[in-house]
Write a structure and sequence with these properties.
single chain; 226 residues; alpha+beta; 7-stranded mixed sheet; 5-stranded antiparallel sheet
Length: 226
């Protein structure tokens, strides 16, 4: 797959949208001026991080299997961190944490035709050596902070792309979750509910126990706080 490397871009995902006719490719930027997170949030993207999006088309990908894209992406991130001696955890559905702080965010934007996914844009921002804004330091971290050393971003990039090419399962995904069986908080706007996390289903729904009632929650409905 073709790899495009840029000094700066507004957003690697937006670049993929603007160049959708160019086929399948990977775009990497040293910095983003308008990095995007989930639910319209901004994503801090100063130089020193790895900002990468993969644009890929599909001929026969069932929409019901969309969570497989999330699985492959999050596990690839975790495998990459492990390759450099860092132990990650996944916070459902798409955040990767180290020591309880976010080290990577993932934004997946799929294009649908009927019950099929025709194109997927997978964007990842991995905090490597970048300096975090003061307001994010209590909740985010970097590979440099975790390991106490500076990393060669080109090596991180190569390892991540190598891991992205592999296929993973929901069991691989769950192997990076250490909070199943524990109480977690589901957030719906300002409303918070304590539940017990039971399982992650193959389609990505979170199975929880709320006061003895088993519920299956979509990531699009609520967010999770550990």
């Amino acid at each position: 797959m073709k790899i495009i490397e840029l000094e700066s871009v507004n957003s690697t995902n937006e670049y993929c949208k603007e160049h959708a006719a160019d086929g399948d490719f990977i775009v990497i930027a040293k910095r983003q001026s308008a990095g995007k997170g989930t639910k319209g949030r901004s994503f801090s993207s100063d130089e020193g991080g790895l900002y990468i999006s993969v644009s890929r088309s599909y001929e026969d990908f069932n929409a019901a299997d969309a969570f497989k894209i999330m699985i492959n992406t999050c596990v690839a991130v975790c495998k990459t961190l492990e390759n450099f001696g860092i132990t990650p955890t996944i916070r459902w559905a798409n955040d990767v944490l180290v020591n309880g702080k976010k080290i990577c965010g993932t934004l997946i934007e799929n294009t649908f035709c009927g019950n099929k996914i025709t194109r997927s844009i997978v964007g990842c921002g991995i905090n490597v050596n970048n300096e975090l804004p003061e307001d994010l330091k209590p909740i985010a971290t970097t590979m440099k902070e975790c390991a106490g050393r500076v990393f060669d971003i080109s090596n991180v990039k190569k390892q991540f792309i190598r891991n992205l090419k592999k296929q993973y399962t929901v069991e691989d995904y769950k192997s990076y979750i250490n909070w199943l069986g524990s109480e977690v908080t589901l957030k719906d706007g300002l409303e918070e509910t304590r539940v017990t996390a039971v399982d992650i289903l193959p389609d990505g729904r979170l199975k929880v126990n709320k006061c003895g009632n088993m519920l299956e929650i979509s990531a699009g409905e609520l967010s999770l706080r550990l």
